[in-house]
Amino acid sequence: xxxxxxxxxxxxxxxxxxxxxxxxxxxxxxxxxxxxxxxxxxxxxxxxxxxxxxxxxxxxxxxxxxxxxxxxxxxxxxxxxxxxxxxxxxxxxxxxxxxxxxxxxxxxxxxxxxxxxxxxxxxxxxxxxxxxxxxxxxxxxxxxxxxxxxxxxxxxxxxxxxxxxxxxxxxxxxxxxxxxxxxxxxxxxxxxxxxxxxxxxxxxxxxxxxxxxxxxxxxxxxxxxxxxxxxxxxxxxxxxxxxxxxxxxxxxxxxxxxxxxxxxxxxxxxxxxxxxxxxxxxxxxxxxxxxxxxxxxxxxxxxxxxxxxxxxxxxxxxxxxxxxxxxxxxxxxxxxxxxxxxxxxxxxxxxxxxxxxxxxxxxxxxxxxxxxxxxxxxxxxxxxxxxxxxxxxxxxxxxxxxxxxxxxxxxxxxxxxxxxxxxxxxxxxxxxxxxxxxxxxxxxxxxxxxxxxxxxxxxxx
Length: 461
Ligand SMILES: Cc1cc2nc3c(=O)[nH]c(=O)nc-3n(C[C@H](O)[C@H](O)[C@H](O)COP(=O)(O)OP(=O)(O)OC[C@H]3O[C@@H](n4cnc5c(N)ncnc54)[C@H](O)[C@@H]3O)c2cc1C
What we know:
By secondary structure, this protein is α/β, with parallel strands linked by helices. Helices cover 31% and strands 24% of the residues. It contains 15 helices and 23 strands. The N and C termini lie close together (7 Å).
């Protein structure tokens, strides 16, 4: 490597200190590379720390311990069937690769000290494959930060990566980072892009998905900086028009998406002035994709409705399966338990139990008479007030194109030497079917990218 007035030097620089970036930093340092992780905000973790923690995987030790027989072949058959149902073609080789990598990564995380509940059922998968981080993804981030610190990874907070620097051969030479002291030019043997998604970059979203009417993004740090930096040096992108449809989510941790079954069971959706949202509209609001109603909404569950919801005593196991066995609604997929029942919500700030309509109205901030008019006739307490919720965009799904080794590809398909992509910043395949792959792939791709970057940097020295 040449020195053209660099301020700093590392074997591997990772841009983004969310789940994929921390995992990449840990993998690079474990392979012996001097590693810097640049994080734009004041805290590591990104959206990973906010995640419910679902990882979909097959043939795992968690499944074996629970007596669940599964294999990658069965898993692949389920994904192929889901793709057929969705009218989508899949790349079987890459899907297989990703499935194996995600399942192996779950075991790596267990070895690092991460615990999982489950496996929980998750249709249309024919076998319970839902593994959920315990107690939640803030712990997952803690585990990664502590493991990275042990390997002397230099995690620099409030230090956004701003620009990728190439040498005269078109290989990655370093990164410009912007700290509070001004720009810092870091010479690097290899760089991993792990700067998350672009749902908060309105200009980028309007350009790639002009027909999308947007709800508010969940977090404003998701400005697609990694996508922008990569595109500027000629990287190929794919699926950029794929932005998650707006979803109703609780606005405090855990950011649960309430289940559509709640309205059919009798739960009422009300605005913050206590006005009822009528059943048909309420059902639409609980489905992803509905784009109006961006104001705060509360969900009110009276005693008669609570009796119709799934309870822990409905579970037979393994995992949370009572809702699936009885057909009774759950509140939403949630950290630790997989599927939250009303009882689980008591632990969270967005749950309030009110003995009377007056107390429920006081909590919402509306007039008791208005709330009473929005509830069923003769509605009896206790009332569970869940909220506020808002319709938000949680993520975008397009990324910088990579191969299975996570090398970033240029527009013409060649590898951009020294540049790797991980997490939602990058994209290997377009369809997996069901959820629980974004987090698993963030971890797996971070591991692959970090190790690959360390190897590449080692060869340059
Ligand atoms: C509420 C919620 C629940 C979810 N639940 C699940 C789930 O249960 N299962 C699942 O599979 N997926 C889930 N997801 C999606 C999944 O969590 C994410 O796709 C995944 O964790 C993304 O990891 P990442 O490291 O790529 O991005 P992030 O974790 O968002 O990390 C990106 C990091 O890069 C930083 N950054 C941005 N720009 C720069 C820059 N210029 N320089 C330096 N740093 C920068 C950001 O500040 C951030 O810390 C959920 C997402 C949300 C929002």
